[in-house]
Backbone:
């Protein structure tokens, strides 16, 4: 199968979308453009209110067009439409893994922004859950998929972006712990995405200059119980600040008393905080070094070893 290449675009203004992702019987809520070239700007292809159904997709594909462009300002509306085809897009081998990773990351961010926008509801969490499952599927596909997805980690310390980054790294690390069941792997990802849910609505909810807020762990676990999330996910919200040497909170649990999913989320959470804080200035291995010095003995040794393997060490 030939792999598609992306059209050349001004990345600031445009969002390339595989045409398969837009197929739906509902009307478009945003305009769709055909890629231009270095001399020609993108051309309007379909107006809002128009259709983008299977027939249109086939006609574009028969002309060799596999990507269209959507304006960045229409990102949210476009992602809502793409979400319906996410499982299919995630598994489409003709779409480069970088493109799939980027789209899944965008979809995860969009879902996370809704989850953390206010008191989360079951629907917002279910959207997040779907994206996590798709990314888990991609991580299980092969190791290079994780490397591609890892590249999309952002430097933002906002709660939604932090949670998506933790989710992605949890999936990568859980994959290295020989967890090969898609269902269980997705729970590690979901635990990463929702570990800080208790911070929603709390003062200083971003992670920048935050005050320590020990109460977020029990608030988060209670919220997740109300939403009917699985035990592993609730436990990770409650235990992700517990430490292997017993120095954490809220219970001062140590070693094997901390659940396996929580051990993973705990390490990734701290690492991600260090990575985001120093992003662009120091490499990943320096982040590990800082982690090793500032959190000696805080994490399960097997998890630390697997995490190093995640980054090819
Ligand atoms: Fe936390
Ligand atoms: Fe966190």
Residues:
């Amino acid at each position: 199968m030939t792999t598609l290449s992306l059209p050349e675009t001004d990345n600031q203004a445009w969002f390339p979308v595989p045409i398969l992702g837009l197929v739906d019987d509902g009307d478009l809520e945003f305009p769709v453009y055909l890629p231009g070239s270095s001399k020609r700007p993108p051309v309007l292809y379909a107006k809002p209110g128009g259709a983008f159904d299977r027939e249109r997709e086939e006609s574009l594909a028969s002309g060799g067009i596999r990507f269209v462009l959507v304006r960045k300002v229409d990102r949210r509306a476009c992602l809502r439409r793409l979400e319906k085809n996410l499982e299919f897009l995630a598994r489409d081998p003709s779409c480069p893994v970088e493109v799939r990773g980027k789209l899944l990351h965008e979809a995860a961010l969009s879902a996370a922004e809704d989850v953390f926008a206010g008191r989360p509801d079951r629907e917002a969490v279910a959207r997040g859950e779907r994206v996590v499952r798709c990314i888990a599927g991609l991580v299980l596909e092969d190791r290079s998929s994780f490397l591609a997805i890892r590249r999309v980690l952002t430097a933002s310390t906002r709660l939604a972006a932090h949670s998506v980054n933790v989710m992605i790294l949890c999936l990568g690390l859980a994959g290295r712990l020989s967890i090969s069941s898609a269902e269980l792997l997705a729970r590690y990802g979901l635990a990463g995405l929702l570990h800080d849910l208790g911070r929603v609505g709390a003062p200083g909810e971003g992670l920048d200059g935050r005050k320590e807020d020990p109460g977020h762990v029990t608030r988060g676990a209670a919220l997740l119980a109300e939403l009917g999330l699985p035990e592993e996910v609730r436990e990770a919200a409650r235990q992700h600040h517990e430490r292997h040497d017993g120095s954490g909170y809220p219970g001062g649990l140590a070693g094997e008393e901390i659940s396996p999913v929580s051990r993973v989320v705990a390490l990734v959470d701290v690492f991600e905080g260090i990575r985001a804080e120093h992003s662009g200035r120091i490499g990943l291995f320096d982040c590990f070094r800082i982690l090793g010095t500032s959190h000696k003995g805080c994490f399960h040794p097997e998890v630390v070893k697997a995490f190093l393997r995640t980054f090819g060490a």
